[in-house]
Design brief:
Mean pLDDT: 94
Helix content: 10-25%
Pfam family, one: FAA_hydrolase
Enzyme class: hydrolase
CATH superfamily: Fumarylacetoacetase-like, C-terminal domain
Organism: Shimia marina
GO molecular function, one term: acylpyruvate hydrolase activity
Structural class: alpha+beta
Keywords: Hydrolase, Metal-binding, Pyruvate
Length: about 230
């Protein structure tokens, strides 16, 4: 066994529906502005421009039912997303072969310190301070493809305290799952354990302590998270 000058961090692992085994996470990629209505509400042209991605840290994924309101922000927003979990990868993956690398799907939230993100944008700086903070990606259990099939259509809806705030369909994504995987693989070597968040429909907005967010996507298990 190797010796370490500091103890290695515990691996990040997510529950899998119907299994006692866990899904070990390697990297987390997030696509921006992948629904036209959301692009418009953020002040951007939704024409099909090349996709862009940012990253969260693996330990930002949080499979717990609570979201601690983060520090240094007074404007934290919910963003409803589908997570795509990969069991294999590579470089320069073709669109036609991309889905063969998908292990399963899960409901997830891309929580955003919108005020800090806006400041970073205005200053031409990276977004991590607004996106990659602790517990910033609540996530449900992974549903293996062998049980659900590939999810390319179906409703995505977020309720905030029983009021619908976000509603759309997976088929409204500008860049579909195979295209996201293929594009990413031209810039990064994808691998087993990678997770991709697929973008959010319109209706993003603020949360406060005590709010309850409930995300449902197609046939995936709903994700319910309380802001604490």
């Amino acid at each position: 066994m190797p010796d370490y000058v500091v103890p290695p961090a515990a691996p990040v692992a997510l529950p899998v529906v119907g299994s006692d085994a866990l899904f070990a996470v390697r990297r987390v990629y997030c696509i921006g502005r992948n629904y036209a209505d959301h692009a418009r509400e953020m002040g951007h042209d939704p024409d099909r421009e090349p996709p862009f991605f940012f990253q969260k840290n693996p330990n930002n994924l949080s499979p717990t039912p609570t979201f601690p309101y983060p520090s240094q922000s007074s404007d934290v927003h919910h963003e409803a997303e589908m997570a795509i979990a990969l069991h294999s990868g590579g470089s320069n993956i073709s669109t036609e072969n991309a889905l063969s690398h998908v292990y399963g799907y899960a409901a997830a939230l891309d929580m955003t310190r919108r005020d800090l993100q806006a400041t970073a944008k205005a200053q031409g700086r990276p977004w991590e301070i607004g996106k990659a903070f602790e517990h910033s990606a609540p996530i449900g259990p992974i549903h293996p493809v062998v049980k659900t099939g590939h999810l390319n259509t179906g409703p995505i809806r977020l309720l905030l305290n029983d009021t619908i705030k976000q509603e759309g369909n997976l088929n409204q994504m500008i860049w579909k799952v195979p295209e996201m995987i293929a594009f990413l693989s031209t810039y990064f070597t994808l691998a087993a354990g990678d997770v991709i968040l697929s973008g959010t429909p319109a209706g993003v907005g603020p949360v406060i302590r005590g709010d309850v967010m409930t995300l449902s996507i197609a046939e995936l298990a709903p994700l319910t998270v309380t802001v604490t």
